[in-house]
Amino acid sequence: MQSKVADLIVILGTGGTIAGKAAQAHDNVGYKAGEIHVEALVAGVPGLSAFRLEAHQIAQLDSKDMDFPTWRRLALAVASHLARVEVRGVLITHGTDTLEETAYFLQRVLAPRKPVVLTAAMRPATALQLDGPQNMLDAAHLLQDPGSQGVMVCVAGQVYGAEQVQKVHSYRVDAFRGRDGTVLAQVEEGRVRWLAQPVAARAALGTGVLPPEGGAWPRVELVLNHAHADGRVVRLLQQDGVDGLVVAGTGNGTLSEALEQALLDAQEAGVKVLRSTRCDGGPVAENGRGLLSAGALSPVKARVELLLQLLAAAPGA
């Protein structure tokens, strides 16, 4: 019996600006996200006809409203399709607002050997100048490249790892960059030019831990160091039953004395705490004062990391 060739790309739609509609073609901000079905998106990109494709709609939402149930459905769908021998990889259309969080979540939960590429758009599908179709086509070429592995993001011709990608501009079509300037590759006229260490060398291990359908997720919140940070918000969150806190410190994760003490008190009471930085790049070094560093993770990715750590530590996990 002849074995199946792994050349099928599965496209999973979640909504976002890439699937958005505006009443006027010149309106790039007054649109409703997630209006166009993924199959219609695919049909609107002529170059995709050269690939063997399969499309499924997972959600149709604005990614500012991304939630845990959708993350769970998406992770299970990605894992299911990657397990099919004929599937080369998975392409996910997503909104830009929380794309970096979803990418890191999928990498940490699944750590897939096959490639998973998220793409998005800063202009709705009704805009005069579209960026979504080219991004989808570039993502398909990336999925077919033999060097591709793991979860990546492909936007504006640039390829980023799930660990480094972050949105840095509110409006431009090249709204993303890699933390500390890291770019894995560039897609140029259908060719992938690798610039950094092959993705296959990434060491992140998948947790494989998700709560059951309808099950409870830990509550992890973000707090920020700033002038006159007195720690009151930490005490209020602790009283409200928070499970974990990520603090975005200044500089090298530095904290006001009052905020640091409030976090140490919360940690002593059983709240898990990670210390990140509100800076756009650079790691947070351990300072020996008792609050664990999130390393080089941005605050929002440190929150995903802490969520997964708490899930893994839960009874019966």
Automatic annotation (TrEMBL):
It comes from Roseateles subflavus. PROSITE patterns: ASN_GLN_ASE_1, ASN_GLN_ASE_2, ASN_GLN_ASE_3. Residues 9-199 form the L-asparaginase N-terminal domain. It comes from the Bacteria. InterPro entries: AsnASE_II (IPR004550), Asp/glu_Ase-like_sf (IPR036152), Asparaginase/glutaminase-like (IPR006034), Asparaginase/glutaminase_AS1 (IPR020827), Asparaginase/glutaminase_AS2 (IPR027475), Asparaginase_C (IPR040919), L-asparaginase_C (IPR027473), L-asparaginase_N (IPR027474). It holds the Pfam family Asparaginase_C. The keyword Hydrolase applies. Keywords: Hydrolase. The active site is at 17, 96. This is Asparaginase. Belongs to the asparaginase 1 family.
